[in-house]
Amino acid sequence: MSDDSYDFVVVSNRLPVDHVVHDDGTAGWTQSPGGLVTALEPIMRSTDGAWVGWAGKPDLDDAPFDSDGIRVVPVPLSTDDVQYYYEGFSNDTLWPLYHDVIAPPSYHRLWWEHYSSVNRRFADAAAAIAAPNATVWVQDYQLQLVPKMLRQQRPDLTIGFFNHIPFPPYGIYSQLPWRTQIIEGVLGADVIGFQRTADAGNFARAVRRLLPYSTRGTTILVPDGDGSREVVARPFPISIDAEAFEELARRPEVQARAAQIRSDLGDPQTVMLGVDRLDYTKGIGHRLKAFGELLADGAVSVGDVVLVQVASPSRERVETYRQLRDEVELTVGRINGDFSTISHQAISYLHHSFPREEMAALFLAADVMLVTALRDGMNLVAKEYVAARFDEDGVLVLSEFAGASDELKTALLINPHDIGGLKQAIVQAVRMPRNERRRRMRTMRKRVSDNDVLHWSATFLAALREARARG
Ligand code: G6P
Question: SS3 string of 308-363?
Fold first, then answer.
C-alpha cells in the first residue's frame, strides 16, 4: 500500500478531467463531459477523496495529482485497450446489450480478455490507494468485474457499485457469453445500485437464473468462506446538482444569452430543443421523423417553430455511431432542404458539446424540451431542463423508456416508437396554456430539488454504511 491512502475512493472509467494538449504544445487537464462527472463532482469536492479513472486518451502515463480538492489517479490504457475494452466490449457489446439490443451487440473473446485485464488494472489501482477499511465506490458498466477483484485483494473494504445504465431483462442479458462472470463480478460489492426498480428486478432475476444463491426482497445471499454475505441490490435514481443548475440559469448573463438565442433564431413562437450525446439510444431519428411529419402535415410551420438539436460527438470510432451520425445528418439535411426558407431554418443542428452556461441558456430559451430516448438509464438532461426553469415555464416531452419518467410524471410522457402519439404530444406541448405549463413544471421542480444528486449519494452511502455495520 502506498503512503497516500484515502478513506473514500471513486473508481470510474472516465476521470472527472480530460487530458488536453494546447495549441502551444503544452499539456493540461480540462473538465470532461458526461452525466457521471456532473453527478459525482459535488460529492468528491465535499469529501477528501480520490478518483481512479482513465484520462480519455491512449498511452498516457501521468502521475497522480490534485485537482480542485480531488486526488486524481490516472489508469493508463494502451491503444489496444481503448479499442478492445472501451470501444469494443464496453461500447459495442455491453452498451447495446444493456439498452435492449437497439443496435446488435458484438461478441469477441479478444474484447472480453481486454475487459478483464483492464478491470484488473482499475482494481489494483484502487486497492493500492484505499486506506484500511476504506469505502470504494465503483461506477458503471465498464467496470463490472472490479468489485469482486477488489474484494479478493482487500476484504477489509466496503464496496459499492452503481450501474448508471439500464440492466436488461434476462431474455436479453442471457445472450452474453460471459453472463455469469459479470454477475459474479458485480456481486463482489456490498451494495449494488440501479436507476430503476425494473433494473434491480432484472438483475435479481439474472442472479437466480445463473447462480444457486437465494434472494430475499432486495437482499442476495452470496457464499463467503464458510458462511454468506448479504448483498443489497436496489434502485437509487441518480440526479443532478439542481441548486447549482438553477443558480446558473438565474445569472443575468445567462438570461441575456437565452434572449439572444431566441432572437438569433428569428424570434419564433416556439423553440423546441433536443440535447443528446449522438447515440442510437436517444431516439433522435424518431424525434426528427415526428417533427418532419408535423411540418409536412402543416400542423407546425417553419418560422413559427424551430427545432434546435444539439448532438454532442460521442464514441466516434465505433461503427454504429458513425452510421448513426450519417443517418441523423442525412435526415436533418432532408428536412431542412424540404422546409427551410432563406430566413428560417426548420432545424438548427449543432454537432458540438457546449459549456454548462450555454446549456442553461438553451434550456431557458426552449419552450419545449424533447427527450425521446428508446432506452436510457436516467437521462439527466431532462432533470437539467427542469432545474433551469426557475420561471416555472417550459414543457418537457419525456420518453417512458428513460429512467427519469419514474419521477417526472407530470411531463408529457410518450412512447417514442409511436410516431403518431409523439406528434400529438408535440402539438399538445406547443399549444399548452401557461397555467398548465406552470402546474406541471412546479411538480417536476419540487421532485428534482428534493431528490438532487446529494440526496442520491447520501442515500447510497448510507446503505453502504448499513452494510458495513452488518458486516
Ligand atoms: C453514459 C455512461 C457513462 C459515460 C457517458 C459518456 O452516461 O453511463 O459511464 O461516461 O455515457 O460516454 P463516454 O463513452 O464518452 O464516457
Answer: EEEEECCCCCCHHHHHHHHHHHHHHHHHHHHHCCCCCCCEEEECCCCCHHHHHHHH
